[in-house]
Amino acid sequence: MTALPVTLADVREAAARLAGVAHRTPVLRSRQLDDLVGARVHLKCENFQRIGAFKFRGAYNAVSRLSEAQLRKGIAAYSSGNHAQAVALAARELGSSAVILVPEDTPQSKKDATAGYGAELVTYDRYTGDRVAIGNQLAADRGLALIPPYEHPHVIAGQGTAALELLAEVDDLDTVLTPVGGGGLIAGSATAAKGLSPGIRVIGVEPEAGDDTRRSLLAGERVSVPVPRTIADGQAAEIPGELTFSINRRLVDEVVLVSDEEIRAAMRFAFERLKIVLEPSGATPLAALLTGKLPTGGRIGAILSGGNISPERFAELI
């Protein structure tokens, strides 16, 4: 069997690079949630991470490894929002500049935040345009280093540091639960979790309209779905990444699905009972827990991936 492209050592190296730069986000508990779920639940709150989402971890880990010459030329990325902000902030922190390709329908709050970190925004239609092709061409035309949102070993290793922290704080977890979009967070999380505890279960959560990873795992190969139309815009992937799927097909145990209505209910629960704000993608693990999509019992660690949502959109959804 071939070696995996990202190892526990890579995740640990990323953690050392992020020390003092990324936030060590809190792990929250709720007795009411435990009673509802029938398990001891530990919530890793990446909504408190810099830029409001876990994406800063992978972006900074990747950008910080570029040469001084490349940092002077600048960085390109494509993203539905959170990776855009992460790369923009990482570039600013490291004295570089960023040009970010974003879908036209990206929430305005995410566009504004990305621009606020000093990035130049270029838009495209996610339903007709190929962001990978457009992003690669943009980077080539301008001589920029392209940092993709998940198809990059340093990005995946950086994302895995969230699970590494979670497992350092709660060392006897039975299950790690994460959202799944392109697959970078769960690939990094699975690398960390299985590296530390081979018997642990790693479960992903996708919106029903965007179940490309679940279908791919069942088929044993990458499967494409129509462009998902879901409130979980951060998980609107059409096909798993090639690199991420090469990891996830070997390390991920299962993917469960949640509906947009279940996501809305989880966002409301987080706000009313946990006193935290989650964007739809960040709430999908909580939605899976609240709707009984997982076996009861044991100790579950769930990564709540982000909280980037405007007050107006939040109020509209809940």
What does this 3D model show about the protein?
The chain has helices at 8-18, 31-37, 55-63, 68-73, 82-93, 108-116, 131-142, 153-169, 184-196, 212-219, 242-251, 260-274, 280-290, 311-317, and strands at 27-28, 40-45, 75-78, 98-103, 120-124, 145-146, 175-179, 201-207, 254-258, 299-304. The chain is of the alpha/beta class and 318 residues long. The longest helix has 17 residues, at 153-169. 54% of the residues are buried.
Q: How many alpha or pi helices?
A: 14
What general form does the structure show?
A: globular
Radius of gyration, in Å, reads 18 Å
Spatial arrangement of strands, main beta sheet = 1-2-10-7-8-9
Provide mean pLDDT, rounded: 95
Strand content range: 15-25%
**Which stretches of 5+ consecutive residues score pLDDT under 50?**
none
Major pleated sheet: 6 strands, mixed
Please outline the helices and strands.
Elements: H1 8-18, E1 27-28, H2 31-37, E2 40-45, H3 55-63, H4 68-73, E3 75-78, H5 82-93, E4 98-103, H6 108-116, E5 120-124, H7 131-142, E6 145-146, H8 153-169, E7 175-179, H9 184-196, E8 201-207, H10 212-219, H11 242-251, E9 254-258, H12 260-274, H13 280-290, E10 299-304, H14 311-317
Parallel strand pairs: 2-10, 3-4, 3-6, 4-5, 7-8, 7-10, 8-9
Antiparallel strand pairs: 1-2
Helix pairs in contact: 1-8, 3-5, 3-8, 5-6, 8-9, 9-11, 12-13
